[in-house]
Amino acid sequence: MDRLSSCDIIITGSGPAGLAAACLLAANELHVICVAGKAARKQADPRTVALMLPSIRLLHKIGIWPGELKVDTAALRKLRLIDDTGNILTAPTVTFGADEIGEDAFGWNIPVERLVECLQACAERLGVTFRHKDAAAFRARREQATVRLEDGSELTGRLVLAADGRESKMRATAGISALEWSYDQAAIATSFGHSAPHCGISTEFHKTAGPLTTVPMPGNKSSLVWMETPALVDRLMTLSDQDFAKRLQFEIHGKLGLVSEIGPRRSFPMRGLTATSFAKQRLFLIGEAAHVVPPIGAQGLNMSLRDAALAAELVSDAVAEEADPGSASVAEAYNVKRRRDVLPRQAMVHTLNASLLASLAPFHSLRALGLSTISQFGPLRERIIREGLAPQSDLPRIMRA
Ligand SMILES: Cc1cc2nc3c(=O)[nH]c(=O)nc-3n(C[C@H](O)[C@H](O)[C@H](O)COP(=O)(O)OP(=O)(O)OC[C@H]3O[C@@H](n4cnc5c(N)ncnc54)[C@H](O)[C@@H]3O)c2cc1C
User: Fold this and answer.
1) Is CB count within 10 Å lower at the N or C end of the chain?
2) Around Cβ 250, how many Cβ atoms within 10 Å?
């Protein structure tokens, strides 16, 4: 077998979702080729991702947590929601503590670039073969999946895991359509220093154009995801660091003291996407190739890592039973289980976002009433905390406590 063009599993895309899947499969002694995409496409990424306990367990099992990765991260001990809409009916501030479910932390906030570096190094150690080219097309024929690269050469395997992002070429050439929509919002991602400690609290300020979220980083530093109208985001992106810091300090009502040291900023248009199917014979969609949500409630990559974990579990189980991992029945099991997790979460994120944007009073009243009920009713709080971390059923084995 030519290890550069023929393997067990082909993974397209080397973002966090694709690399996590590559590590999991290679750890199970499968030969994996990762079509990493052209290096030129990669842009500097100032984002951090809040990864919840089940995702952290996955990083632990593949051997990159705690290790060097943990050094650059901060624990998320409390999540606080503040109604900052200024409406007549204001919801009470709700704070969820990890101690309410007997944990020290809900998860950790990790710089995306550092996460990708550590996953990449792990995949290389585990013997994953990397091809630094773009994947152009997918084809399935009997027992075999084929990926054509941009230079016309072909790779073959038993199955393709497509983790090539929201514009996925694999999804399109496999003939899977996607429902796509956009929000009249964009988000600025950056980091900042502050004079007061964050005490491990991540705060979502719910404003009329979307949430502004601060997430703890090591020391007196936090990361920021600020969703606003695209016009205001454009203006905020042109402010000097000093003016941006002043504006941010005002928007968060001085809760973190004096704001300074603004990091590199990058803006992201806010879009949603759901593939009409997450799998077909010899192809599974992973991460943003399957689903995209706005950054509310830290759902995006946590869902994507569950895609990677379930895909690896189903493939490894099939191989262990000497069955075909690319069969229609394995694909259907993946599709059904992942949609059961992803679709309700996308709906929840969409509804929360829409309830802020809606100019109709009934929506604000409903949100205020909902948050008020949650803040007072213990069993409901606990259920919401546990479901926010991960689904209580169907969690891939590797992510279970
Ligand atoms: C501002 C912001 C904040 C966020 N915060 C959080 C958070 O706190 N918690 C959370 O869980 N999620 C968060 N998310 C979501 C999270 O960042 C994404 O879900 C995640 O980065 C997507 O990873 P991915 O691997 O699916 O896709 P990507 O990171 O987009 O990776 C796709 C990869 O495929 C490659 N590629 C593309 N086309 C090809 C091709 N033809 N051939 C080969 N390779 C190709 C690309 O180069 C890229 O490397 C946030 C998102 C935003 C925008």
Assistant:
1) C
2) 10
Give percent of the chain with pLDDT exceeding 70.
98
Q: Which residue has the tokens 């694909």?
A: 331
Using CA atoms, how far apart are residues 49 and 67, in angstroms rounded to an integer?
Answer: 18
Cis previous bond, 111, omega within 30: no
Side-chain-facing half-sphere of 288: CA atoms under 13 Å: 17
Residue of the CA atom closest to atom 11 of ligand 1? 301
Residue nearest to atom 20 of ligand 1 (CA): 301
pLDDT confidence bin for 367, thresholds 50/70/90: confident
pLDDT value, residue 277: 98
Ligand 1 center to 391 CA (angstroms): 21
Beta-carbon count within 10 A of 161 CB: 33
Write down the pLDDT at residue 371: 80
Nearest CA to ligand 1 atom 39: 164
Q: Tokens 């199917």 belong to which residue?
A: 277
Residue 88 pLDDT level (bands cut at 50, 70, 90): confident
Q: What is the DSSP letter of 6?
A: B
Ligand 1 centroid vs 165 CA: distance in angstroms? 6
Distance CA 351, CA 293 (A): 12
Taking residues 48-67, what's their average pLDDT? 97
